[in-house]
Structures are given as C-alpha cells and as structure tokens.
Specification:
single chain; 608 residues; mainly alpha; 4 domains; 27 helices
C-alpha cells in the first residue's frame, strides 16, 4: 500500500470521502481527465459503495469516525442490476472516447484491460443476471459474511467492538436482500443442483441450532474483546449485546435463507452442468473468456486438458517405477495408495492442526529464503499460516489465500484445510505452500500491492484468475526447478497438483459443456489423480457452482511457461530469470494478452 497520502498525481491512494481534499478536487474537477484518473475515480466510487471493501483494505480505519464504514454492511437492493448496467454502459462509452494517439503505451494497455473487463461484466448483467448461486457450499453469502466478520473486521478498541455489533444487527437485512434475488432467480427457473441444497441447509441448520456460547460470531468476538483493556461493566455490556444481536438479527437472517431453501428444494436442478440452466451454454463461453482471458472454445480446452493429463501422468509413472511401485497399476491407483499410506499421514492427535500449521510455516519460510535468488525484489508483507475455520472446513477447498491489509496492519494468510487427515499427506504439502504463499499467491499479490509505480486502477481495479492462479501454479513448478522439492515424493506431490489442474480442464468442460454428471466427473478425477474421496467431492462440487474458474489455473500456467520458453530461446545467454519474473509481475494483475506484450517488450529491450 502507498503510505504517503500525496506524492504524485498519478498515484492515487485509496482515500474516498474527503480525505486529502485538495487531491480529490484535482481528481474530480481537473479537465481533461487522464484515463488513469478516470478509472481511479471509478474505483474510488466502487470502493466507497462497499463498506466491506473499505474494511478489507484497512487504510481508512483511522477515519472511521468520519466514514462509519466499519459499522455498515452492503444491503442488496432490487434495482442493483439495472443501476449497474447503466453505470457500466456509461463507463464503456467514456473509455472508447480516449484517443489512443494521446495515450502512453502503459495507458493503451490500461484501456485494453478496462474495456475487456467492463464489456464482460456488461454482457453478464444484460444476458445472464441470475446465473449464479448466491447460496452455495463453498462461497455462499451465509459463509462469506461470517468469515468477513471473524477474519477481517478489526476489534482493537471498544469502538470497533461496538461497530462489530452494529454490523451483526444488519445481517437480517442483508439476507432479506439476498432472499429477494433468490426469488427473482426462481421466477426465471434457475435453481441449484440437489447437492447444493443438502450442503447449504445443513450449514444453515448448524448456524441456527448452535448454542450462543459455541456460535462462531460469539466465540471470535469474545476472544478479541478479552484482549481489550475494558472494565467489567464494559465487558459485560459487549457480551450481552453480541448475544442480543445474534438472537435478534443473525439467527433470524439465517432462518430466512433456510426457509427459502427448504421450500424450493423440490425444484432443485436434476442436472449439474450450467448447460442445463437457461442460457447456460452461452454463459459458459463468457465465463471461459472472463476467467481465462482467452477465446478458447470449450472443446479446445477439453482437448488441452486430455493432452496435459497424458504428459504429466507419464512423468509420474517414471518416478513411481523408479521407486519400485507396481507397474501394472495406474498412476491414479498408486497415488491413491500413497494417500492412504500412514507413512505419509499425520497422527490424529488433539494437537494435529497445530503441528501441521507449524510444518507449513517452516516450508514457507524456507521458500522465502531460497526465492530471493530468483526475483529482483521480495514482498515486504509477512505471510502466516492458519487452519481453515472449523465452521467452513468440511466443504472448503484444500487451501486458500487472504491478502494483507494495505496499511500493513494485517499479514497475508495462507489457510490450510485440516478437516480430513487424508487431505494432508505430507508429500503434497510443499506444493500447496508454494502455491498459496511463496512464490505463489502471497508473493504475487503482495508485490502488486506494494508496487508504487502502478496506478490505482492497475493495482486494484482489475483481477483475473488466469494470471493470479496461472502464476501460483507456475510457482509450484518453479519451486521444483530451484530445488525446493528434491525428495521424489515431493516431486510427485507437485506433479499430482499439476495433474489435478490439468484434470480440471477435462472435468469442468466435461460437466458444463459435454454434459457429464457430477458422479462421472468424480470418477474421472479419482481415477486420474488418486486424490482422496473427500478432496474429489469437494473439488467437483466447487466447479459446478463456479463454472469456468477452475480452467484459469492451467491455461494461465501454460501461457507463462510458453512465454518463458520464448524468452529463453530468443535471448539465449542474455536470459535472466529475474528480468522475466519482473516482466510478468510488475504490471498488476493483467489479462494474459497483456502479459504476453510485456514479456515481448522485455525480450526486445534485452536484445537491443
């Protein structure tokens, strides 16, 4: 995060409501606007419209007395979609007015990125406004809101504790707004598959029926409040208030959602792929374009996946044969046996999670030390390891990353899912650590957040998983190349991870394009990867409720490796891995077509 409020007019910080007034006057009233100022202004408006985003960013917390954002939540409104469409149409029209002949090369790229992004958003809102699943087992609003309150909302003072309660008092309103969207979905004949109903109803029941003393909001709130220097009366007051808020707002809100799910369960979609929803085939093509930033067809991606599965499986076969495993068994069968082998599993002891977290932390710290030789700069932000919260671990992915606060008040967090012992075989831990932390997500995201050369829009305005997830998967291979996984079993873990992502190309297109069932996709993934039953189920069900996103990993990785190979071939002994990594990472989170332009520019500059 840029910590200096004013340094240069091209470096707008995330100040939204009157802070640094002179700068904002220049921003809003200086004519003509540069494209950077215009997109920065749009981003500020978007940011100020989301109190959750302001809290997540963290930079305005010291001005909460003015903004009051930490005591608010976004309440869905009936006219949200209509207003978004009108606004995006206006933005696109304005962007096209910027004359390329008057833009710098960087600004031309910015224009390309913004138009690509806004046009994809507009098409989705215009033609597919209800093809999402607001309630789903991995990222539904019923889970996200709890996670936000417990993990992001700060409680460093009595005032922030009171803000927490003001927010929980709004939960019922948030869920009422969500309910209105769900009802609009139902009117358009869109219902999630049956398994989604089962998971979500069970999750909602747990929230509704849990005792106050075990409620995740109460437990986390009271743990943080105990760290404050409060009198007994102040402590008792806050405890009484959080209990009241849970009873009066949170639980009734969950009941609203639960009642809707129970009443519509009979209408659950009998199929699993998005093709079965109104407009699903065209929607899937749009999601492929959005997530992969390419124009690949579903068929092209499916074939790409099959080819990669064959290539990676062959290398794994070589390693397994060298280790003395049965040549008559498939790679999937052998990897499944490894998953079951107690030699690679942690003992199910009461402190198992603590032990695993400590082991992950050692791996991350080792990677940070080694990777300093492969990058011009390393992130300043710290990254820590935590276990996925118990209330979401049963249906959460194997691991995920939460970026640091821009003001340095919160580190980046690599969350590891430790629900199932078989989900954490020791040989697979390194690849997950490298993917989520260093040199993966944490390195890339923190690098962008700390890059003061980026404009506001290029730093925060656009995100694509083709780049972010492609980089994280490339990071696993990079870690293997530099010697962080010298044990052949660790290499198997990394290859299994890559095989897993290649498999995604097959099963995602299989379900959403070729009309496979959930069970067919699970059988394929199990046979190819040897992953545990728990992992396979969670992953396949994730792809069903998030069409196309799983394609971005392997597509992005393939592009980065392709560009590195091109740079190595054209530069020869002039090739410098640090320069290549800077060419990829120094431009925020761009679409792959911009990454390609930046690498080509690096090649040209080094040849001259």
């Amino acid at each position: 995060m840029i910590k200096k409020i004013l340094k240069h007019t091209q470096r707008l910080v995330l100040i939204a409501l009157g802070i640094a007034s002179l700068y904002l006057i220049n921003l809003f009233f200086m004519k003509p606007f540069s494209i950077d100022h215009y997109l920065g202004k749009e981003l500020v408006f978007d940011l100020t419209g989301s109190p959750e985003e302001l809290t997540y960013v963290g930079v305005l917390d010291s001005f909460n007395w003015l903004t009051r954002h930490n005591s608010k939540l976004s309440i869905p409104q009936d006219d949200d979609i209509e207003n978004q469409i009108k606004h995006i149409e206006k933005v696109i029209k304005t962007l096209y007015k910027y004359d390329d002949s008057r833009l710098s090369n960087i600004q031309k790229n910015t224009k390309k990125i913004a138009i690509f992004d806004y046009e994809n958003q507009l098409k989705e809102l215009q033609y597919f406004p209800y093809l999402d699943y607001p309630l789903n087992q991995i990222g539904g609003i019923h889970l996200n809101l709890i996670e936000f309150m417990n993990s992001v909302h700060p409680i460093r003072s009595k005032s922030e504790a009171n803000d927490f309660i003001k927010r929980t008092d709004l939960v019922k309103e948030v869920y009422q707004g969500t309910l209105n969207h769900l009802e609009d979905q139902a009117e358009n004949g869109i219902y999630p598959p049956e398994f989604v109903y089962g998971h979500v109803i069970n999750q909602l029941d747990e929230f509704i029926n849990v005792s106050i003393s075990e409620h995740p909001l109460y437990k986390q709130f009271m743990l943080k409040v105990k760290e404050l220097n409060l009198s007994n009366d102040e402590f008792d007051y806050l405890e009484a208030e959080i209990k009241r808020s849970i009873n009066d707002s949170v639980t009734p809100g969950f009941k609203l959602l639960r009642n809707f799910m129970a009443s519509t369960q009979k209408n659950a979609n009998k199929n699993h792929g998005i093709w079965s929803q109104p407009g699903g085939d065209e929607y899937y093509k749009l999601k492929i374009r959005t997530f992969t930033t390419t124009d690949y067809s579903p068929e092209e991606i499916h074939q790409m996946g099959l080819n990669e599965v064959e290539r990676i499986s062959s290398r794994m076969r070589e390693i397994l044969t060298s280790l003395g495993y049965d040549e008559n068994k498939s790679v999937g069968e052998l990897m499944n046996e490894l998953n079951e082998n107690p030699d690679f599993l942690y003992a199910d002891t009461p402190n198992r999670k603590e032990i695993v977290v400590n082991d992950y932390t050692e791996m991350v710290n080792e990677a940070i030390r080694v990777m300093t030789n492969y990058f011009h700069t390393m992130p300043k932000s710290e990254v820590i390891v935590k276990a996925v919260p118990e209330y979401s671990e049963q249906n959460a992915a194997g691991g995920y990353y939460q970026s640091p606060a821009l003001d340095g008040s919160r580190p980046g967090v690599f969350y590891a899912n430790l629900y199932d012992i078989k989900q954490t075989p020791t040989y697979s831990m390194r690849t997950l650590a490298y993917h989520e932390a260093t040199p993966g997500h944490h390195h890339q995201i923190a690098h962008s957040l700390e890059n003061e050369e980026l404009t506001l829009y290029r730093r925060f305005g656009y995100f694509t998983s083709a780049f972010a997830e492609g980089w994280a998967l490339y990071s696993e291979i990079l870690a293997l190349e530099v010697g962080l996984a010298e044990n052949p079993y660790d290499e198997l873990g990394i290859l299994q991870s890559e095989l897993f992502r290649a498999n995604r190309l097959v099963v995602d297109t299989g379900m959403h394009y070729k009309r496979w069932t959930r069970e067919e996709a699970m059988d394929y993934m199990k046979s190819v990867t040897g992953m545990s039953d728990t992992e396979v189920r969670v992953e396949i069900e994730r792809y069903i409720v998030w069409p196309g996103q799983a394609l971005s990993y392997k597509v992005g990785m393939i592009k980065i490796l392709e560009l590195r190979e091109r740079a190595m071939k054209e530069l020869g002994n002039k090739f410098n891995i640090k320069d290549f990594h800077s060419a990829v990472l120094d431009h925020g989170n761009p679409p792959l077509f911009i990454v390609e332009e930046m690498v080509d520019k690096m090649i040209e500059e080094n040849l001259n």
